[in-house]
Amino acid sequence: MDGRPPEGSQPDRIDGRFAAALLHWYDRHARALPWRVAPADLRAGIRPDPYRVWMSEIMLQQTTVAAVKSYFATFTERWPTVEALAAADDAEVMGAWAGLGYYARARNLLACARVVAGERGGCFPETAAQLRSLPGVGDYTSAAVAAIAFDEPAAVVDGNIERIATRIACIETPLPAARKPIRALVQELTPQTRPGDFAQAMMDLGATICTPRKPACVLCPVTDHCEARRQGRQEAFPVKAAKGAKPARVGAAFVLRRPADGAVWLRRRPAAGLLGSMSESPTTAWSSRGDGATGAEAAPVAGDWHLAGFVPHGFTHFDLTLEVWVADRTDDPPIEGWWASPASLANEALPTLMRRVLERAGVA
Q1: Contact 153/195 with Cβ under 8 angstroms?
Q2: Where is this region: Disordered (predicted)?
Q3: pLDDT of residue 5
Q4: Could you give the C-alpha distances from 3 to 7, 48, 91, 262, in angstroms and in order?
Q5: 341 φ, ψ to 5°?
Q6: Does the active-site annotation cover 188?
C-alpha cells in the first residue's frame, strides 16, 4: 500500500468548503444564459422552468453554448410550452433544428414532449430516476434537470465537470473508464442546498477557467482544493484512452434541378438512423459501417448527370466524402420526394451536409 486514498475519493483537504467557495464565486460571476435563472433571481423566489431547462440541456449535448443560443430562442418563441412543442408538426421541428447537428436529439425532443404533454399533464418528473424514463433523457440530462429545476442533489457530470473532477483528485484512469470514480467524486462534492447552482457553477468553471489548455488557475476559486494544481500537472488531466483512426466512407448525392424555376428534388431520410427524418437530395446507401455506391450509374433515375465535385464531411465516428452529381429534369421523377424552390430551401430540414451538397451543385 502506498498510503494514497482510493482513486476518485476526495483529497483530505476537500470538504464542504469546496462547494462554499465555488458558489461564492458563482454568485458574482455566473454567466448570463437565456435558459438560466441567475442566483439573485433564485434568491428572490424565481424558479427555473423545467421545460426550458430540459430543452437547453438536450440542445447542449455535444454542442457549444454559442451555437445553441439562437436555436433555443427560436424554439422557445415558436413553441413556448411543452404542450405547444408536442403538438408541432415533425417536419417543422426538424426544419428548425437543421444545422444544429446530432439530429436524433430533435426526434427525441418531440417524443419526450409528447410523453410529458400526453401522459403527464405537461409536468416533468422531478427526480433524476423518473426523468430517465423519458425518451432521449440519459444520466447527464436527468441529473441536470433534476438538480437545476427541482433542487435534487444529483451528480451532474458533463465534459467540463469531468475535467474539473479529474484535476481535483488526479484521477489517472483514462476516460471513459474513469467515469465511475468521477461521478462518485462529484456526488460527494454536490451540496444538499443549491445543487442546481452548484452544477451550473461547475459548468461555468470548466468553460471559463478550468479549460482544457492553459487553465487560469490563479483565478480559480477552488485552486486550493486541486491536487493537479499542487503537483503542477493540470494539463495532464483528464487522461484519455488512445483513439483509433476514424474510418473513411464514400458515397454519392444526386441533385435534380428543374430549369424552369431552379427547384431541386428532395426526399426525406428514414426516421431511424443517421440524419433520420431530415431532407436530402437522393444519396446512395452510405453509413458508418460501409461505403455507398459511387458514379453516375448509381443515380436513382436516368439523366444527363455530370460531376459537380466532392463534399467531405466529418461525423463523430467516421469521415464521409460524397460525390455530387447534377442533372436537369422538367417532369417529376418516378421516385419519392418533392420539388423545393430556392426560396423554400431555408425552411427545409436540410442538415449541414446536404446544404453543402446543394452549394456544390450550385443551388444554395
Answers
A1: yes
A2: 277-297
A3: 46
A4: 12, 44, 60, 73
A5: -70, 155
A6: no
pLDDT at 243: 83
The Cα–Cα gap between 207 and 64 comes to: 10
pLDDT score for 14: 63
CA dist., res. 154 & res. 141, Å (int) = 11
What's the topology of domain 248-360? Nucleoside Triphosphate Pyrophosphohydrolase (3.90.79)
Domain residue spans of the chain: 16-236, 248-360
CA 151 vs CA 26, 88, 127, 193: distances in Å: 17, 30, 9, 8
| Listed residue (239, 337, 331) closest to 279, CA to CA | 337
What is the rounded CA–CA span in Å between residue 225 and residue 18?
Answer: 7
Kindly provide the b/e burial profile for residues 253-292, where b requires at least 16 CB atoms within 10 angstroms of the residue's own CB.
bbbbbbeeeebbbbebbeeeebbebbbbbbbbebeeeebb
66 CB neighbour count, 10 Å cutoff = 7
Written as nine digits, the cell of 79 is 413553441
Strands (E), 39-126: none
**Quick one: pLDDT at residue 2?**
43
Segments in the chain below pLDDT 70: 1-15, 364
Query: Cβ contacts of residue 268 below 8 Å, gap of 6+?
Result: 277, 278, 279, 280, 336, 337
Chain length of the chain: 364
Interatomic CA distance for residues 127 and 54, integer angstroms: 13
Which CATH architecture fits 16-236?
Answer: Orthogonal Bundle (1.10)
Q: Which of 57, 152, 280, 348 is catalytic?
A: 57
Q: Which of 112, 110, 157 is nearest to 137 (CA)?
A: 112
